[in-house]
Amino acid sequence: xxxxxxxxxxxxxxxxxxxxxxxxxxxxxxxxxxxxxxxxxxxxxxxxxxxxxxxxxxxxxxxxxxxxxxxxxxxxxxxxxxxxxxxxxxxxxxxxxxxxxxxxxxxxxxxxxxxxxxxxxxxxxxxxxxxxxxxxxxxxxxxxxxxxxxxxxxxxxxxxxxxxxxxxxxxxxxxxxxxxxxxxxxxxxxxxxxxxxxxxxxxxxxxxxxxxxxxxxxxxxxxxxxxxxxxxxxxxxxxxxxxxxxxxxxxxxxxxxxxxxxxxxxxxxxxxxxxxxxxxxxxxxxxxxxxxxxxxxxxxxxxxxxxxxxxxxxxxxxxxxxxxxxxxxxxxxxxxxxxxxxxxxxxxxxxxxxxxxxxxxxxxxxxxxxxxxxxxxxxxxxxxxxxxxxxxxxxxxxxxxxx
Length: 403
Fold this sequence. Notes:
By secondary structure, this protein is α+β, with helices and mostly antiparallel strands.
């Protein structure tokens, strides 16, 4: 957690030659511009300009100059770059030419949501993600094939599991960049892997997801492979999810336990009451809807205690209670996804929204699920988009920002 002055000192003392300033478009795709160390003070003071008209979803050419201001607390050495003449990365916030925050900046949107939760509810949302991805072989031209890296299954070990060494590389690289992975293993699909993260504040969690996807893509490529985060890479096989574990702590940074069950109940109620409207942002591509309702991905708006067939699971854990939202996939913009979940939590807490009755049945059994008469998640991207566009809640959170 560097300060501005510490970053300037670090750059000088550690022989840093390039500084990557990273930011995101509205779909959560990472962009960056590299500057030399001599430009860093200017970046901190005035920002580095870029052409916003070239970024999908940003501005037209009439008002296209925006500025990147680096966040010094996000400084990290890029460990796969040369040790001599180091390269570092900082995430940035985006500002208009008059110095005001840019309203389509994903990080700023999430920061505002975190502040609102603290101001109105006196708590901070803590998030830990579980991200899945497939590894595919490349052909002689370096293009992805449909052949998976291995044929192993859930939590298999070597020699069936070929991804063991790559997952280790990824975890070591994460640690070198200041991120603590919690666990890693082979997932159900052939060539499918999962790496889980310790919980952190929502902004750090979103930054970590972005960094993680970048590292996975880089390490896969260096091993002659292609990493696929799409929700349903192979028909008939398990899809890629990004489970979101949600807990909270109060403003004096002490994890709450005494009243956690009742407060989490309202957070659960708030999220379930708005889940239909926000699914478009949690599952943002057409392929997302091939995953939902198939191969153990949730289909129905429901919650259960330890029940992995429900949309939200309340795990049996000692200490701090948490919720596990199982519908999102890795192609969502984590900054916008977490923003919506935080605002749903605020409504749940302030209005004391009770969740529906707990679901104990196995919803993966179609006949059993039909008898439960539960409402389903949207069946297509177009349906999800229509629900989001007609949602007063989404408009309240994003204004007219997101079409």
